[in-house]
Amino acid sequence: MIHVVEGDPRVPSPQSVELHMGLKRVGVPTELYMYPGASHGIPDARNRLVKSASEMAWMDYYVLGKGNKFSWRQVLETLEEPKAEKKVDIRGM
């Protein structure tokens, strides 16, 4: 599992892509996640959530031998439903 920020100044993303392709070529299960940005860390909270959820699913599946591979549905299920706006009746005031 490889996580990289597209414009990371310390770890060029093409190196991560090459590693991913090389691992796939020799039959190693691998996944590549590339996030937008230009920093060494993942700045966006939603992308950090994706990273955490995918790592947990990876460990469960490949290390513990249980669960399923990562699914985007897992992330979507963690998002809150939009809260309905309360309408105030100003006529009754």
Description:
The chain has 93 residues and is mainly α. The protein has one domain (2-72). It is built from 3 helices and 2 strands, in the order βαβαα. The protein has helices at residues 13-25, 45-63, 72-78, and strands at 2-5, 32-35. A two-stranded parallel ribbon has the order 1-2. Strand 1, helix 1 (13-25) and strand 2 form a beta-alpha-beta unit. The longest helix has 19 residues, at 45-63. The protein starts with a strand and ends in a 15-residue tail after the last helix. 6% of the residues are buried. The mean pLDDT is 84.
Keywords:
93 residues, mainly alpha, two-stranded parallel ribbon, 3 helices, 2 strands, flat
N-to-C SSE string, H for helix and E for strand: EHEHH
Order of strands in the sheet with most strands:
1-2
Q: Which descriptor suits the 3D outline? A: flat
Q: Percentage of helical residues?
A: 40-55%
Radius of gyration: 19 Å
Provide a count of the helices: 3
Structural classification: mainly alpha
Provide the residue-averaged pLDDT. Answer: 84
Distance between the termini: 59 Å
Please count the beta strands (DSSP E, at least 2 residues each).
Answer: 2
> Main beta sheet, described?
2 strands, parallel
Strand content: 5-15%
Low-confidence blocks of residues: none
Question: How many domain modules?
Answer: 1
